[in-house]
Amino acid sequence: SLLKEYLNRERKVIIRAILPLRFVIIIFDIGKALMKSLQYIRSG
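^ that's the sequence the OP posted. Answer follows.
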């Protein structure tokens, strides 16, 4: 029972740590897409 409580608490911490990471990855993907489209526009 103690282990279960500990794991639940840890899971919350892990999720809290992962969410910003996913956000950064999404922003990075958007940034790459923008760079690609900018290069495409420049080349005509």
